[in-house]
Design goal:
Helix content is 23%, strand content 35%. It contains three helices and five strands, in the order E-E-E-H-E-H-E-H. The chain has a five-stranded mixed β-sheet with strand order 1-2-3-4-5, covered by helices on one side.
């Protein structure tokens, strides 16, 4: 499947009553080809500024490297700017070098060591 452009990026408030969480769906034609979640979080540093957390990034395997992911991230970064965020952050699996290079291409830097605790 060759994709020339993302025809539509649709932000959906999710869960429905929380305006600080959006599920972004990339659609071409009648197909969902990508999703990501962007969460807007107030925090103490940067004088109580807001940050955007991007998670759950998925692009259909068949169309990776076609520009869908780039379009989604450009949209998400601009959305964070429009919401007044001072920082965009994400986590990614250290075992995914292609994903790391993709994010670094936008200017993301590995500045912290992330940790998780499964419950």
């Amino acid at each position: 499947m060759k994709i020339l452009q993302v025809l539509c990026l649709v932000p959906i408030i999710w869960p429905s009553n929380d305006p600080n969480n959006e599920l972004v769906v990339a659609v071409t034609g009648h197909h969902i080809v990508g999703v990501l979640q962007i969460t807007f979080i107030p925090y103490l540093t940067y004088q109580g500024g807001w940050r955007a957390l991007i998670e759950g990034v998925r692009v259909s395997k068949e169309i990776r490297s076609s520009g869908i992911g780039r379009a989604m991230f450009e949209w998400a970064i601009n959305r964070a700017k429009a919401r007044g965020c001072v920082l965009v952050q994400l986590t990614t699996d250290k075992l995914r070098p292609d994903a790391l290079r993709f994010y670094e291409g936008f200017g993301f830097v590995a500045s912290h060591e992330g940790m998780k605790l499964k419950l």
